[in-house]
Amino acid sequence: MSVNSAMIRKVTSIAMMSAVLCALSLGATAIELPKSMEGRKPILLGAETTAELSATLSDPEKKSQERTATVEVKVMGIQLIDPAAVHEQPQQGQGHLHYQVDNGPLIATTTTKLSFHELSLGSHKITVMLVGNDHQPLGPRETLTVNIPPANGDRAQR
Questions:
Q1: Could you read off the pLDDT of 51-93 as tens digits, one per residue?
Q2: Alpha-carbon distances of 100 from 8, 23, 105, 106, 132, rounded to whole Å
Q3: Coil, helix or strand for 69?
């Protein structure tokens, strides 16, 4: 059987998980990454976990002309997991995202890229929040503003 890069990644992931589980059983709060992963931050576990979130609009000028906004989110320090998979029970180091446009409904998902279509003219606030499996805020939140201009040919009404 030939070895490919996907198999190597899978074996590396399994080895990393084993190391983390072993360290947890010993009461560790920080795990050193293998040398192959140098340059990355150590994984923090337990009470010292710090989750980070950053959100940006993808190609905002072009998308706003199409009455669309696409949000891209980067999350660090937490595993994104579907809360239904764990019966919405809070678990340290797990969570998901809540997206909300203006005062509209919350969208709960693990998706880190989400598009909103058919936005009305004017300014809109898109809030992205990191929440636990029980939907309680974990702290990190960002609010982005998108302005949808009138389409070419639309005239302002008097």
A1: 899 999 999 999 999 999 999 999 999 999 999 999 999 989 9
A2: 39, 38, 6, 5, 16
A3: strand
Specify whether 132 is located in the same domain as 97. yes
Element (H or E) spanning 82, and its range? none
* CA atoms of 45 and 57, how far apart (whole Å): 30
Report the half-sphere exposure of 37 (CA within 13 A, side-chain side): 13
Report pTM: 0.65
Q: Which residue is listed with tokens 């937490």?
A: 78
Instruction: Quote the DSSP letter at residue 104.
Output: S
**What CATH number should be reported for the domain holding residue 101?**
2.60.40.150
Residue 133 has pLDDT above 90, yes or no: yes
pLDDT at 51: 87
Judgement on whether residues 99 and 128 belong to the same structural domain of the protein = yes
Token duo for residue 149: 């201009």
Specify whether the CB–CB gap between 39 and 94 falls below 8 A: no
Q: Count Cβ atoms below 10 Å from residue 134 Cβ, excluding itself.
A: 13
